[in-house]
Structures are given as structure tokens and as C-alpha cells.
Write a structure and sequence with these properties.
25 strands, 501 residues, alpha+beta, six-stranded antiparallel β-sheet, ten-stranded antiparallel β-sheet
Amino acid sequence: MLRLGALTLAVFLREQPGLELAGGAGARGFGRAVAPVRDLSWRDHVRHTLHEIDWVPDLGARIGSGTWWRGLATCTGLIAAAVLTAPGIQPIPGFVATSMTAAEHEEARTLSIAPLGLGASTGRRMAANDLVRPLAETPERPIIELTATLGSGDSFGAALQRAGVGRSDAARVADLVAAEVSLGDLKPGTMLDLTLGRRQDRRTARPLEKIAFRARFDLNLAVHREGDELTLERRPIAIDRTPLRIQGLVGSSLYRSARAAGAPAKLVEAYIKAIATRTSVGAIGANDRFDIIADHARAATGEVQVGQLQYAGLDQGRKKLRLVRWEDGDGKGGQFWDANGQSERRGFMGMPVAGRVSSTYGMRRHPLLGFLRMHKGMDLAAPHGTPIYAPIEGRVVMAGRNRGYGNFVKLNHAAGVSSGYGHMSRIAVRPGQSVSRGQVIGYVGSTGLSTGPHLHWEVWKNGQPVNPRSISLSSVATLSGEKLRAFKAKVANLLAVQAAN
């Protein structure tokens, strides 16, 4: 049975085209692969051999074997061939545009596509030919719309004429506007919107067709041409005049807290100045609360104006300060009174003349008499004829010669205070006359017992001489009757205003 199986296997292998049995059919062992049975040409043999060889084996397996070394040689050869045949990396030359002449640049700009705002034009500019008829003069626009600004110190009519309005039209418009508002009240910077019409020839001014501007915060004015006449149109602006009220906590800084609450800088300065007349600003604590009420106007067009401070309040717990601006008819533009209708006025005397102090108040040796005596005033050296001003308001009780004082003026002030001014070269007031602070009462001289031009300034408190630089004046005024009732009504109206959010 074994021999029969071997013979069958041998017959099968012999039928295969590329195998034969070594030792013939009767061999005892199995056959092995040998050269093909049919003879091959050398080209086919080489092709077959190369086809059977694995040229790219896995270099990660069977390291060190013949197949591995053959694969390594193949890889090395490919790398060497790639390096030797590489063309190299050469820089690519860029294109450099040639510079254009001015004419070429203009031609290119004309033909290019660009926004009109950058100066682009369309098409080629061509010279005029025989079909083009030149114009005798450039045609004018039928209507010109422009804006003029009223300058500081400028007149309304002059501003219109500078803008191109004819003299007669400018005068007529000025008369129409003056009938509604004073031309002097027009603020510098007012914008005038003008429309000028067509003129008959170039030698005449264009007729005014329309002008519109804001004459006041609550009024717009417009002038239109109707035929040959100019007519004025009033356009009132609705104004909300509810006062502005701002409240808040003082915190670390009164000024910064008020500014952060929405109060303008000038309003905060006016508030601090008002309360400083009644209390020390440095004594205001971080937990105190401020209350500010001021005039406020809001136009229907959106503009806002903040006016004068009307109420200054400060809540310090147990102490509450409430000051209200009130016009008491003294011509001083309004003073701050407390809520009870009282006003306390304080002030120090100012220097009556612009000069240097040559002798102070106190004991000194008299320059002419030569012995020690009390100098009851202050000497201010100044050139002859220098004006002497009243340091504070008062009434003249003496104006004339006064022994060693020479030409002398004496003023009575509030709270029992009087002041005297000696050695004047000329007196500028008369007895019984009321003088205000800063009014000229005389001129520096050297009359009486004097070694040179200077002013002897002397002050008395209840008849006793005092140092002029140490005296302060205060007075208390109280409202009554109808004025007090009107004042109380104003206080109630102000306190009824709701604080701004």
C-alpha cells in the first residue's frame, strides 16, 4: 500500500509543468522542485528569476538575513539615485514693474476701476473736436445751499453779506429778526443755514431764498422768500424747565461723588462755594449727604441746559444745612439764604491800594517826631496818584483835612467797624455818600505829617483801633412780610422736586 501511494504522488507531480522527481519515477523519496521540464530561453529565465525575487522586503523582519540585506541595498540605491538626480531648489525671479511717467500714470488711472471718491474717472479723456462748441462762460448752479457761522463780536448782517447775501436782503432779514429777538443776544457760533437763488447776471448778488437758525434755546427762526418779499416764520421749541435735583453720599470726596451722581463741574463748584460760607468743607464727613437743586431746561429737540444753583443742602445727621438762592432786590444777582429766610454775610477787608507795606500796626519810632509811639494803622507805600479803593462797602462820614492825616476819608461799615485813609493827594468822595467794595475813594499823596507818598490805613472796632488785617465783617439780614412768604413758597417748590435717578 505504501508503494502504491508513493507511485500515485510521483505521477501527480510529473504532470505539473515546473516540477520533476529526482532519481526517476521509481525513487523512494518525495520529489523536489527543480528546473522546469520545458527548456526556457535565457531572457525568460532571467525575467522569471527577477519576478520571483522580493526586492522590497520588510526591513523590520528577519534582520540580518540575505533578504533583509537585499532590501537594504535596494533602499540605499533608491535614495542615492534620488539625491544624484535632484534638480535642486532655485529662487523664482519676481516681476518688477517698470516706473510710469506722469502721463502714463494718468492714463492708467483713467482706465482703472476705483471709487469715485478716490479720484477715479470713467472712459478716456478726449480732446474737443470740431463738433464741440466752447462755452462763453461756465454755467452757474441755479440754487446754492451753504452754512455760515456767527463769529465772536460779529454782526448778523455782516455774517450774511460774507456768505453772499446782498446788502438789501441782509438788512431786511436783520430787521425781521430784530423784531423777535435782540441781535446782540445771538450767541457766537450760531449756525445759519442759507439757500441762495439764481441771479440775473454775475455782477449782482444772489437773492436770498431761505435762512433758518436757532435764535434762542426755545426758538427757531426761518425767513422765506414769497415773490419779492421776505417773511419771517417763528418755530417755538417746547422746553421742560423742571429743576434738576441730585442727591448722594459724600463718601471719600464731595466733588467726585457729586460729579459721579451727574452734576456738572460748574454746578458742583457753586455748591461747594455756597456751603463753605456756613460750614467748613473739611468738617464734612463721608457719611454726610449732599442735596443739589439747579435750574434745568430740556428742549424737545434733545438739548439740555443746566443753569444756576438754586438750593444747596447738606445733611450731617443732627445738623442740617439748607441754603436757597433769593433775589432780595439789592442788585447783587441773588444771595443764599437759609430756609428760615435769614442771610449771613461775612468778609475780610481787602487791600485798599496796590503797594507794599512800609509800616505795620503796633509800636514804632515816629519817622518825623523821633520818639516811640503807637502806630494805630498800617502804611502802604505807593506812587503818587495811585487810586485808593474802598476795601468793603460802607458810608462816607468824613472827607476833608484832618490835622496830621492831611486829606482824610473815614468810612462807617457794618457791625460797628470804621476805617480811615490819610495823606491823600485828592479825595474822590463826599460825606454821606455810600460806597461799594472796590470803588475809588481817593488817590495816594503825601499831605499832612508824611515823609513821602503813601497811604495811612486805620481801622476801628466799636471806637477802638485794631489791626486792619485782622478785622472781619459779618451781618445778618432777615426777610419778612410778602418777601418771606414768597421765599417760603420757593423753598417748598424746590423741595418738592424729585431727585434724578
